[in-house]
């Protein structure tokens, strides 16, 4: 592969703006990520591409999400944030100053758990480290994983002890699990979808929901299964249905699995047999390629909601957020952003939310109660400025 051919391929991919079904979009994503993987494994090719196509490693082009129209059912009072995840320009390793937000209160009963981070964008490095941080402590460097897996499909167990990811050996996409420090690494399954239905942990940390599909055919025929990672035989309970959906999330009560579909967001029962479409998306032409977080009872969802645009053909995982929506009514929830840009939201098992905001060149995480009121705020260490939150655990 040479840099001229890659530029031509990427130019052709950028022209693909026709709205198609999720599987066709996944196939295009698979090709795009395949190009990135081939480039990342060749140091010579990396140098050429860094010079000729500096931003070609980003899985999704940066772009601003259009504002919600006046007739959209929403009760959000805060300004609609930009979807462009522009990182902080701070270079200090010391904690950044918290963006100005006014007063905050603290309680002893509700706290921010441990946050796990991975790279926000593909840089071309072969591997990168998962990191964790608990407010009040210093960031901790954890196991090293392929950068594409950290960006595209890694999943952290609800207790923060185990990590699951999918990586290719050239002939098969394999599902691995390991301890967060890298020990006890095991390959538990072959022929696993790495792009559309990324493996996701059950609330008890014993099972992984995944989709079986042949290598290089992530959008082709497949089947959904729930893998018992603690069983000796690694037994699988197969779903009797195959939803045309991507990016599953499991609610903390174990009763709901949310996925994005052509209808926007759909909630499934834990066996995939029942489903309910969340209102407020497809009706007005809005959609979401990803669901970042689901509340413990499945009543709220945090995601990036946008109208189809130039990057519609890319369904690679994107954990940016520009709102929180009620899954029963489709209305959005006001968040105490203090005029800052909303970047990410994660629900905790008690129903509270960890809200990541950016103001100027500083990032902060807010603890917000179920009622939408801010409980506390903590400045995020500047060392995490080029990373995104992958999970928040107790």
From TrEMBL:
Key words, A-Z: Membrane, Transmembrane, Transmembrane helix
Transmembrane segments: 38-59
Protein name: WD40 repeat protein
Alphabetized Gene3D superfamilies for the sequence: TolB, C-terminal domain (2.120.10.30)
Top-rank lineage group of the source organism: Bacteria
Low complexity bias locations: 71-109
Lineage of origin: Bacteria, Bacillati, Actinomycetota, Actinomycetes, Micromonosporales
Signal peptide location: none
Residue segments, region Disordered: 63-109
């Amino acid at each position: 592969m040479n840099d001229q051919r890659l530029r031509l391929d990427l130019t052709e991919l950028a022209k693909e703006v026709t709205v198609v079904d999720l599987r066709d979009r996944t196939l295009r994503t698979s090709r795009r990520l395949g190009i990135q993987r081939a480039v990342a494994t060749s140091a010579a090719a990396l140098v050429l591409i860094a010079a000729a196509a500096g931003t070609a490693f980003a899985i999704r082009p940066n772009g601003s999400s259009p504002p919600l129209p006046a007739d959209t059912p929403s009760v959000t009072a805060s300004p609609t944030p930009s979807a462009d995840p522009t990182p902080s320009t701070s270079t200090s390793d010391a904690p950044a100053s918290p963006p100005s937000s006014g007063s905050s209160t603290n309680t002893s009963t509700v706290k921010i758990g441990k946050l796990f981070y991975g790279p926000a964008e593909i840089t071309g490095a072969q591997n990168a480290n998962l990191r964790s941080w608990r407010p009040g402590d210093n960031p901790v460097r954890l196991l090293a994983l392929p950068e594409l897996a950290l960006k595209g499909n890694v999943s952290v167990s609800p207790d923060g002890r185990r990590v699951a990811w999918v990586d290719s050996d050239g002939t098969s996409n394999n599902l691995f699990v390991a301890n967060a420090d890298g020990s006890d690494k095991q390959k538990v399954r072959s022929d696993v979808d790495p792009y559309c239905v990324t493996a996701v942990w059950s609330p008890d940390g014993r099972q992984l929901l995944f989709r079986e599909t042949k290598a290089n055919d992530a959008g082709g025929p497949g089947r959904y299964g729930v893998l018992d990672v603690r069983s000796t035989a690694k037994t699988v309970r197969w779903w009797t249905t195959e939803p045309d959906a991507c990016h599953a999330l499991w609610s903390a009560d174990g009763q709901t699995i949310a996925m994005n579909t052509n209808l926007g967001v759909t909630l499934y029962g834990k066996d995939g047999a029942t489903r309910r479409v969340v209102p407020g998306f497809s009706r007005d032409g809005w959609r979401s390629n990803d669901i970042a977080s689901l509340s413990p009872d499945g009543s709220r969802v945090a995601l990036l909601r946008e109208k189809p645009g130039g990057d519609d053909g890319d369904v690679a995982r994107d954990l940016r957020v520009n709102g929180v929506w009620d899954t029963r009514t489709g209305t959005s929830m006001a968040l105490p952003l203090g005029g800052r840009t909303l970047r990410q939201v994660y629900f905790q098992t008690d129903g509270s939310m960890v809200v990541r905001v950016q103001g100027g060149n500083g990032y902060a995480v807010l603890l917000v109660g179920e009622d939408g009121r801010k409980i506390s705020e903590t400045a995020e260490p500047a060392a995490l400025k080029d990373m995104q939150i992958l999970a928040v655990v107790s």
